[in-house]
């Protein structure tokens, strides 16, 4: 089985850089999840950075296995498309559920009430 040692230098450098960049982006998102004070602020760290960080790691994986196997490996492209489609939708649904929960409980922590957030009809 071929290993990282048999990878040419022209491919090893971008793979390494993409892995470091992806790991750093995901680490920043995890730190944001830990450090920010409210739920609405904490959800932005993972929601934004997971997509970009995981994309960098998947690109590194695609490049690595494509060079080692001397053919295009597209499994990672399918995973990336799935991740790009589902991660923002899941984050939005989690945030909307939190807004609805806060509105039902009558919390004013979010800075808006139901009339300001969801206007279904105009009041004159």
Keywords:
124 residues, mainly alpha, 74% helix
Brief synopsis:
Helices cover 74% and strands 0% of the residues. By secondary structure, it is mainly α. The model is unreliable at 117-121 (pLDDT under 50).
Structure notes:
With 124 residues, the protein is mainly alpha-helical. It has a domain at 4-85. The protein contains 5 helices and no strands. Helix 1 (9-35) packs antiparallel against helix 3 (44-69) and helix 3 (44-69) packs antiparallel against helix 4 (75-105). It is elongated and about 60 Å long. The N and C termini lie far apart (73 Å). The model is unreliable at 117-121 (pLDDT under 50).
How far apart lie the N and C ends? 73 Å
Helix content: over 70%
Mean pLDDT: 82
Return residue spans where pLDDT drops below 50 for at least 5 consecutive residues: 117-121
Q: Give the class from helix and strand content and strand pairing.
A: mainly alpha
Task: Describe the largest sheet.
Answer: none
* Net shape: elongated
Beta strand %? under 5%
């Amino acid at each position: 089985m071929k290993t990282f040692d048999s990878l040419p230098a022209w491919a090893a450098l971008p793979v390494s850089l993409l892995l470091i960049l992806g790991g750093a982006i995901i680490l920043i998102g995890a730190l944001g999840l830990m450090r920010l004070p409210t739920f609405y602020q904490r959800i932005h760290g993972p929601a934004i950075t997971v997509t970009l960080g995981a994309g960098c790691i998947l690109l590194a994986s695609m490049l690595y296995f494509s060079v080692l196997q001397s053919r295009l490996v597209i499994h990672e492209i399918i995973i990336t498309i799935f991740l790009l489609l589902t991660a923002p939708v899941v984050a939005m649904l989690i945030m909307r559920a939190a807004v609805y929960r806060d509105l039902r409980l009558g919390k004013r922590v979010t800075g808006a009430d139901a009339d300001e957030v969801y206007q279904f009809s105009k009041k004159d």
